[in-house]
Amino acid sequence: MGVEVVEVGPDYLKGRLPVDGRTRQPAGVLHGGMSVVLAETLASWGAACTVDPQRFHCVGQEINANHVRAAQRGWVYGTARPLHIGRTSQIWEVHIHDEAGRLVCVSRMTAAVLATASRYQQVSATPSTGD
């Protein structure tokens, strides 16, 4: 889809997304769902960077978005910052701007922090016989 992470700082993650034939809706502007893709990608990577990957992983639990302005071409840039980093959940806010610096979208994502071992507990160690 063209999402690129372009900068990682001590309390933020920045990325960009092209506004082109892959990401526009039929009216010729950036599809709102693509803004959400950018926001969740940045927030998810940000959340993953705050936990010990040997012990925990983060998954999106809820996301919302307010679409403020249409983008028609070029790139949109998102900046994700944590609002809350807790033991079992995180909240990330993402501001997306166009190349002129105008606000396109504001999104907020809640991530659940899960123990890594928990995702393997339901997987059987015995191979299936196909019966």
TrEMBL record:
Pfam families listed in its UniProt record: 4HBT (PF03061)
Classification via InterPro entries: HotDog_dom_sf, PAAI_dom, Thioestr_dom
Keywords per UniProt: Hydrolase
Start and end residues of each Thioesterase domain: 28-105
Origin superkingdom: Bacteria
UniProt lineage: Bacteria, Pseudomonadati, Pseudomonadota, Betaproteobacteria, Burkholderiales
Protein name: Esterase
Entry's family note: Belongs to the thioesterase PaaI family.
